[in-house]
Specification:
The complex is a heterotrimer of chains A (514), B (208) and C (227). Chain A is an alpha+beta fold and 514 residues long. Chain A has helices at residues 14-33, 38-86, 99-108, 139-146, 193-243, 258-316, 321-351, 364-374, 397-414, 474-484; strands at 116-121, 124-127, 152-158, 161-173, 179-191, 360-363, 383-386, 392-395, 419-427, 433-440, 488-493, 499-506. In chain A, strand 9 and strand 10 form a beta hairpin. The longest helix of chain A is centred in the middle third of the chain and has 59 residues, at 258-316. Chain A starts with 13 loop residues before the first helix and ends in an 8-residue tail after the last strand. Chain B is α+β, with helices and mostly antiparallel strands and 208 residues long. Chain B has a domain at 60-198. Chain B has helices at 2-33, 94-97, 108-116, 121-125, 164-178; strands at residues 43-44, 49-51, 60-66, 72-78, 142-145, 151-154, 186-189, 195-198. A four-stranded mixed β-sheet of chain B has the order 5-6-7-8, covered by helices on one side. The longest helix of chain B has 32 residues, at 2-33. Chain B is elongated and about 100 Å long. Chain C has two domains: 3-120, 3-Layer(aba) Sandwich (Rossmann fold), CATH 3.40.50.2300; 129-224, Orthogonal Bundle (Arc Repressor Mutant, subunit A). Chain C is built from eight helices and eleven strands. In chain C, the strands form three sheets. Chain C has a five-stranded parallel β-sheet, sandwiched between helices. In chain C, strands 6-7-8-9 form a four-stranded antiparallel β-sheet, with no helix packed on it. In chain C, strand 8 (143-146) and strand 9 (149-151) form a beta hairpin. The chains are: A alpha+beta (514), B alpha+beta (208), C alpha/beta (227). Chains in contact: A-B, A-C. Chain A binds chain C through residues 296, 299-311, 314, 335, 338, 341-342, 345-346, 349, 354, 356, 358, 360-362, 366-367, 370-371, 374, 397-398, 400-401, 511-514, and chain C through 10, 12-17, 19-20, 23-24, 80-82, 84, 101-106, 108, 173-175, 185-191, 194, 216, 218-220. Strand 4 (161-173) of chain A pairs parallel with strand 2 (49-51) of chain B, so a sheet runs across the interface. Chain C: Pfam families: Response_reg (PF00072), Trans_reg_C (PF00486). Chain C: The modification 4-aspartylphosphate is found at residue 52. Chain C: Residues 3-116 form the Response regulatory domain. Chain C: InterPro entries: CheY-like_superfamily, OmpR/PhoB-type_DNA-bd, Sig_transdc_resp-reg_C-effctor, Sig_transdc_resp-reg_receiver, WalR-like, WH-like_DNA-bd_sf.
């Protein structure tokens, strides 16, 4: 979704990549578990609207349907009951004997289902069931039946069970147009269980109707969320991409809404940032090139000067004292200048990432011994070594020599004797075997304030100190050389006093080439 | 800073909880709360049921007694054969006396006497009683029908002291024996010379 | 002591090195270009050529190749560290050793002596002529012939072959070879050995891809044979 135009330019070194990958991972993890994110909220809003409308519709529909259903059932029951009652004949006065049989006949023919029929006449109370008097029939219904002489019904809920009660007063014909109340009132009591079931079914149906509605609502909800979230996600990804160093990241601008404006602004800002950073980089590159060029240019005259220092040294004795001193000074400083220029060249190559690793499989203990020998430190009683044999590692011999020589030289110059060189192998925390070289001295140690800067170029732990014999680049070059081996170096102080430099280089399992 | 942020989150969470409750109330309320069957008022659904009472106007008489709830209950009683008794009372203007149809075989005087003799065994079994005092003199009843349909009955008892139920018992019994629809104003005259008149008015409005 | 031809374009360096080496007893002739250097070869007949790689016109590498076409003259390249690519090309072109500039005259002198010494101390108490397969090595006459046909080996190649064949089937690490054959310090560039081995194989092996005489032992180094 994000277009990252990538020109042929190779991605700048591992540093930026590592920086970018690190913080990006937790961010991504956080986004996965975000509970009330934009998407969730939009979905919730859509679902809420859908649910309310579906729910309201369902509820209204349900009410109407329920009422219609109940009305049908009730009307049917009342009219059936009246029909049934009108088919009966009674002698007046009504006699208690035989009345229950009539009532049971009535009860059997109940519609939509059997009912219990009660009869009240004078002091006679009878029913088709077990109790002659119903506990469900209310005084209001009784009054409507006896005093108002209307057929009427009432829904009564007793103990959670709904009942339909019908009161039916009776009259008889005294002539073709006239009737007289008989004084007999018949009641029907019907459980509405099935109606309850119907109602429940209706309820479920309404719910089932609402749920698909909600599901359908999800689609526009997701679409809307997507339309908002996609630009947001693109923006986030672009921001992260920029954070990890790809400053040419841009967001495609779609439409004309606020999000498009945001993308536009982002692109503009990114462009400005890219320009600024580009200028900075150019400036830095120019500075580096300049340092490299300067040292290159210095090298040629130095080569000539260095070639004649010997002549100067040898002939100095034959000159008068002042001239001789001047000549020796020039000769000595030429040597130092050569070292400085050589170190500058080396640093420039590291900066330009042009430093190559020419690895060879070597015996590490032997290599360290040779380094000490070459500097005439092998028989120096200021140096103690602990070099177990048979540790072989794939290293660039020249660079490893530089590392050891710089560390030992540094210890001799700034620390105090004895200088200890320890070699061992160790399993690192990640399980790989690492080569460990420790160079420790018994000097005053490194001031705490200097520790973070000890590997900086031209860093002087003691600001007042005069120029040291080294170039001031020794530890910086050491650090670069160790890094080139994928190793680490750290400086610290020993508990008993004295500085210790620890180099760790992973041992490679691969064989020496060629 | 940090604590403030957390409180903000809590507040937001509360707001969401409130919203969720509102949703449940808005959606669930109508769905769940209004379900089931509720009580209802008493709802009228048409008139009373007309039943067969085996009333034979040619052979039966209609008496009104007092039911336990204070109302009147009609009772159908077969006229017992009583030789030569009823014929004497037929008057020359009998046809004119009842223009709505042929008069029942039981003369009203006899019916009134039957009423005055009180509820029978079956009537009492059903809890029916009478509000009329017991009367012995059976010959003392006379019924006259005026030309306008008004009925006048001379009764062998003191009318003045009768309660309303007793008066209605007499009125309805006389009215329904004189006419099938029980209409007509009945005037009661007692031995005490008092006179009360009224109509039965028992017929339900719907079918009357 | 020895006659050194220096080919270096920068006049200041040329003069300085010339001065330094002359002080150490060498007979030095200097040339400013590759063409001049080649021209001086026949007349001056140097024992050794000190050749700057970066030359105007004909480059040091081209000069090196031209000389190797017909001569076993020891050649030491002058190079600046970091110009790694040129070092490899120079070694492949047939240079015997290289020196990183700027270098003190004592370093250059030591390297010159090492290269020249190799040519001298060949035979020490061994039979003069040894035969390995098709290969005949004359440790006294310092000649090598294959199937009767004499081979022209550069000094470093010859020295390497002599060293390896002096102890057949013994494995030498590159660092050991650098120390023993080139008299470098232990920390020199192993590519020097690799380039020399490659050149040597091109001359003595039947199949360069499957060497019989100079064999590689991955991770350890090189050995002579077994045949």
């Amino acid at each position: 979704m994000i277009t990252v135009p990538r020109p042929g330019r190779p991605r700048d070194g591992g540093n930026e990549g590592a920086d970018g990958a690190g913080p990006a991972a937790p961010t991504r993890r956080r986004s996965r578990v975000r509970a009330f994110g934009l998407r969730t909220r939009m979905l919730a809003a859509f679902l809420l609207v859908a649910a309310v409308s579906a729910g309201t519709t369902s509820a209204l529909t349900y009410r109407e349907a329920r009422n219609a259903l109940l009305k049908t059932a009730q009307d049917m029951a009342v009219s059936t009951f009246r029909d049934q009652v009108e088919r009966t004949g009674w002698r007046l006065p009504v006699e208690e004997e035989g009345i229950e049989e009539i009532l049971r006949d009535l009860a059997r023919t109940g519609k939509p289902r059997p009912w219990v029929v009660f009869a009240e006449y004078g002091s006679i109370r009878a029913s088709s069931g077990e109790n002659p008097v119903s506990s469900v029939i209310t005084p209001e219904l009784r009054r409507a039946a006896t005093a108002d002489r209307y057929g009427s019904f009432e829904r009564v809920v007793k103990d959670g069970v709904p009942y339909l009660t019908i009161g039916m007063p009776t009259v008889f014909k005294t002539g073709p147009d006239s009737t007289l109340p008989t004084g007999l009132v018949l009641y029907a009591v019907m459980r509405m269980t099935d109606e309850q079931i119907n109602v429940d079914a209706l309820l479920i149906a309404a719910r089932n109707g609402a749920l698909p509605g909600l599901a359908v609502a999800l689609v526009p909800a997701l679409l809307a969320a997507r339309s908002v979230l996609r630009p947001v996600r693109e923006l986030r990804r672009a921001a992260r991409s920029m954070g990890s160093g790809r400053l040419d990241t841009r967001i495609p601008v779609r439409g004309r809404d606020e999000l498009a404006d945001l993308a536009d602004t982002f692109n503009e800002s990114a462009g400005q940032l890219e320009r600024s950073v580009g200028e900075l980089r150019d400036a830095e590159a120019r500075a580096r090139r300049f340092a490299s060029d300067v040292s290159h240019e210095l090298r040629t005259p130095l080569a000539g000067m260095l070639a004649v220092t010997e002549v100067l040294d040898e002939d100095a004795d034959r000159l008068d004292a002042d001239t001789a001193q001047a000549v020796r000074l020039v000769s000595a400083e030429t040597g130092k200048l050569a070292v400085l220029v050589e170190d500058l060249m080396e640093i420039s190559r590291f900066d330009a990432r042009a430093a190559e690793l020419n690895s060879d499989e070597i015996d590490v203990a032997e290599a360290i011994r040779k380094t000490l020998q070459a500097r005439h430190w092998a028989d120096d009683d200021r140096i103690r070594t602990e070099l177990p044999p048979d540790i072989r590692a794939r290293l660039d011999p020249r660079r490893f020599d530089v590392v050891i020589a710089n560390l030992v030289g540094n210890a001799l110059r700034h620390g105090g004797a004895p200088v200890t060189v320890l070699l061992r192998t160790e399993a690192s925390s990640s399980g790989t075997l690492v080569l460990v070289v420790e160079v420790a001295d018994r000097g005053p140690g490194i001031p705490a304030a200097a520790l973070p800067h000890i590997f900086d170029r031209f860093y002087k732990a003691d600001a007042a100190r005069t120029r040291s014999p080294g170039s001031g680049l020794g530890l910086a070059i050491t650090l670069e050389n160790v890094n080139l081996h994928d190793g680490t170096i750290r400086a610290g102080n020993l508990p008993g006093g004295g500085a210790v430099f620890t180099v760790e280089i992973p041992l490679r399992a691969e064989e020496a080439g060629r | 800073m940090r604590r403030g942020g957390r409180r903000g989150v809590a507040r937001r969470r509360t707001r969401w909880r409130g919203l969720a409750t509102a949703v449940v109330a808005a959606v669930g309320g109508p769905l769940v709360g209004g379900c089931g069957i509720q009580d209802s008022d008493v709802i009228e659904a048409g008139g009373p049921a007309t039943v067969e009472a085996f009333l034979n106007r040619d052979a039966d008489m209609l008496l009104f007694f007092r039911s336990p709830d204070g109302g009147l209950s009609p009772v159908v009683r077969e006229v017992r054969p009583s030789a030569g008794f009823g014929d004497e009372y037929i008057e020359p203007g009998a046809v004119a006396r009842d223009p709505s149809g042929p008069a029942g075989p039981a003369p009203t005087e006899k019916v009134v006497l039957a009423l005055l003799s009180g509820p029978g065994e079956a009537d009492r079994a059903a809890g029916l009683t009478t509000a009329l005092p017991a009367v012995r003199e059976k010959e003392a009843v006379q019924v006259e029908v005026a030309s306008d349909g008004g009925i006048t009955a001379r009764l062998p008892l003191a009318v003045q002291d009768l309660d309303a139920t007793a008066v209605r018992q007499l009125t309805c019994t006389i009215a329904y024996n004189q006419a099938k629809d029980g209409r007509g104003v009945v005037t009661l005259r007692g031995q005490d010379g008092a006179q009360r008149s009224g109509s039965c008015g028992l017929a339900p409005g719907a079918s009357g | 002591m020895s006659r050194v031809l220096l080919v270096e374009d920068d006049p200041f360096v040329r003069e300085g090195v010339q001065l330094g080496l002359r002080r150490r007893g060498h007979d030095v002739r200097a040339a400013g270009t590759g063409e001049d250097g080649l021209a001086a070869l026949a007349e001056f007949r140097p024992d050794l050529l000190l050749l700057d790689l970066m030359l105007p016109g004909m480059t040091g590498v081209q000069v090196c190749r031209r000389i190797r076409e017909h001569s076993q003259l020891p050649i030491i390249m002058l190079t600046a560290r970091g110009d790694d690519f040129d070092v490899v090309i120079g070694l492949e072109a047939g240079a015997d050793d290289y020196i990183v500039k700027p270098a003190r005259p004592e370093v250059i002198d030591a390297r010159i002596r090492a290269v020249l010494r190799r040519m001298d101390d060949g035979a020490t108490g061994r039979p003069a002529i040894e035969v390995y397969g098709d290969l005949t090595i004359d440790r006294v006459g310092l000649t090598v012939s294959k199937a009767g046909r004499p081979l022209t080996l550069a000094p470093s190649e010859l020295r390497l072959l002599l060293h390896l064949s002096a102890a057949p089937e013994q494995v030498f690490s590159r660092q050991q070879l650098l120390e023993n054959v080139w008299e470098h310090t232990f920390h020199a560039d192993g590519r020097l050995v690799d380039a020399c081995v490659a050149r040597l194989r091109g001359k003595i092996e039947d199949e360069v891809g499957h060497p019989r005489y100079v064999q590689t032992l991955r991770g350890f180094g090189y050995r002579f044979g077994p045949l």
